[in-house]
Design brief:
Blueprint: H1 7-32, E1 44-48, E2 55-62, H2 68-78, E3 84-87, H3 89-94, H4 96-104, E4 108-111, H5 124-140, E5 148-149, H6 158-166, E6 170-171, E7 176-177, H7 186-196, E8 202-206, H8 214-227, E9 231-232, H9 235-240, E10 245-248
Parallel strand pairs: 2-3, 2-8, 2-9, 3-4, 5-6, 7-8
Antiparallel strand pairs: 1-10
Helix pairs in contact: 2-8, 5-6, 7-8
């Protein structure tokens, strides 16, 4: 007995079956909070932790000023919150006592490079020099074990991330942006965080002197997030959990 196959129909059914399988896997992965559709060989930036765990990371960028950070540290301490502070090397060099205060209060330290200037406005060798110099500054201050960095203004591309990895660091981005540096109003900052924050999120705040409403917003945000069942953890702890979400750099 002979069977005759219509190759065109076979290809059509193969495509449909393949698409159905991909869709099923995608839906399952999304539901389980373990989705990762990017190759680990591609340059990536971390934007979120495990969506299955109620842990979130509050992060604060500082590149200039020394007035606002103390009050923000006080609010975090009052609410027993551990956060991660991304500091420019230039700022850390000028304010070593504040860096010590940050770490003494059990917050984690990450880098913002040395000078706070977009890496997309510099050639790659200038970026290399900036990061290397920042690493040297932090090492000199006693922080040789800084593993995470956030690029100035959050600007990066494949080349930048590949360089960061080559230098032994991981790029940390965010998925909740408070825009607090624009001083949009305390209520607006609170609403942004409370409306959008979910399991595994990385929240971007600032602690430079430009922010005038962040401290007051934290009065509401910190207890409210805790009441919703979130735990505040530094970036290293957030990433120690499996299935962190990554962003592919195009």
């Amino acid at each position: 007995m002979f069977y005759v196959f219509d190759m065109r129909k076979w290809r059509q059914w193969s495509i449909i079956a393949g698409f159905a399988l991909f869709t099923a896997v995608f839906i399952w992965a999304e539901a389980s909070g373990t989705i990762s559709v990017f190759s680990s060989s591609e340059p990536t930036a971390v934007t979120k932790g495990n969506a299955e765990e109620p842990n979130i990371a509050l992060t604060f960028n500082i590149s200039w000023g020394e007035e606002r950070v103390h009050d923000i540290l006080e609010k975090l301490e009052e609410n027993d919150v551990q956060a991660t502070f991304f500091l420019s090397g230039e700022w850390a060099e000028r304010h070593t006592e504040i860096v010590e205060e940050i770490t003494e209060k059990n917050h984690e330290v990450g880098m913002l490079g040395y000078r706070y200037k977009s890496y997309l406005d510099q050639d790659i060798e200038q970026v290399r020099k900036d990061i290397v110099h920042a690493k040297e500054v932090f090492a000199k201050l006693g922080y040789e074990d800084v593993h995470y960095m956030r690029t100035p203004s959050g600007h990066f591309n494949k080349e930048v991330i590949e360089l960061v990895r080559e230098l032994g660091l991981e790029v940390i981005h965010w998925n909740i942006d408070t825009n607090d540096w624009t001083n949009p109003g305390t209520e607006e900052i609170v609403n942004t965080v409370m409306k959008d924050t979910d399991n595994g999120d990385i929240v971007l705040f600032h602690a430079s002197d430009a922010v005038k409403q962040t401290e007051k917003a934290l009065d509401t945000i910190l207890p409210a997030l805790a009441e919703k069942g979130f735990s505040f953890v530094p970036i290293s702890e957030l990433l120690s959990e499996a299935d962190s979400e990554i962003t592919l750099v195009e």
